[in-house]
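User: My instructor asked us to take a sequence, write out its structure as tokens, and then describe one feature of it. I'm not sure where to start. Here is the sequence I was given:
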Amino acid sequence: MSELSQEIAAAAARLVVEEGLEYGPAKRRAVKVLGLNARAQLPGNDEVEEAVEEYLAIFCADTQPAELAALRDLAARWMARLAEFRPHLTGAVWRGTATRLNDIHLQLYCDDPKSAEIALINQRLDYDVGSVPGPRGQSVDCLSLTVACPGLGGEAIGLHLTILDLDDLRGALKPDARGRTERGDLDALKKLMGDADHDDTHSLR
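Assistant: Let's start with the prediction itself. The structure tokens for your sequence are:
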């Protein structure tokens, strides 16, 4: 990675952590903040993620682990609640870089794309319908709710449910260039949470 890309990645990481921006908007804003040409070559998401991890370790080590744990606990509750739709957690909460400014992103794999929406209606939950890019390049529905996070004192957190076809689940768990998956089901999340608890307990000894 070039020195300029490193500089953009570092600036983007600060925006991701301090303002809760997604990687794409953070990189574009970083270019403006640094006064660079809009055509400057942007770092990849992996490079930004590494910079985010470094930023968290330096500036947020006292607060981020507890905030991440609270968000993962909330995600687990909703994954159990929506178990019939094979929920998989993705984004910063899954990858371990989330703070209280981040939303929770779940992907639901449905036989009928309207079934999850009907379930929310039956549970009398308010939600908004938007669209996001799907795995095949097409737009797919995304249902967005605001939910309270008990672990953060009832703070309001965004919960986004991307509706995918059941067939998309087959290729969903392929690892990335760093050998990590982009998403995980409830069992995988519980393993992450258990590993984190073990690390915290070990560090106190």
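For the description part of your assignment, you could build on this observation: The longest helix spans residues 64-81. Try explaining in your own words what that tells you about the chain.
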